[in-house]
C-alpha cells in the first residue's frame, strides 16, 4: 500500500482536487492532477462515508485508489492538528 501525500512549507498536507467530472455510458469519471497516474481520467467505483473509490485501467492492469474527502473519518480526526498553525 502506498500513500501519496504532499505537504506545504508548514508541513500541512496538501489536498488534491477533482478538475473535471464526466458521465459516459452510465459511468462516472474524474480527472485529478498531481497524483502521478498513467491515465488522466479515472472511473469512480463508489463513494461511501467520505471515501472516494476510483480505478485506473492501464493495459492489462487495474489499479484501485481510495481518496479520503474532508467528510471521511480520518480527515475529520486530522482537522484539529491541521488547525494548530
Tell me about this structure.
By secondary structure, the protein is mainly beta. The protein is built from 1 helix and 7 strands. The protein has one helix at residues 73-82, and strands at 6-7, 13-14, 18-24, 27-32, 41-48, 51-58, 61-68. A 5-stranded antiparallel beta sheet has the order 3-4-5-6-7, with no helix packed on it. Strands 1-2 form a two-stranded antiparallel sheet. A hairpin with a 2-residue loop joins strand 5 (41-48) and strand 6. The longest helix has 10 residues, at 73-82. The termini are far apart.
Identify the strand order in the major beta sheet.
3-4-5-6-7
Strand content: over 45%
Mean pLDDT across all amino acids: 79
Instruction: Give the % helix.
Output: 10-25%
End-to-end Cα distance, whole Å, is: 30 Å
Total E-strand runs = 7
- Broad shape: globular
The Cα radius of gyration reads: 14 Å
Order of helices and strands: EEEEEEEH
Sheet/helix structural class: mainly beta
The major pleated sheet works out as: 5 strands, antiparallel
- Tally of helical runs: 1
The poorly predicted ranges are none
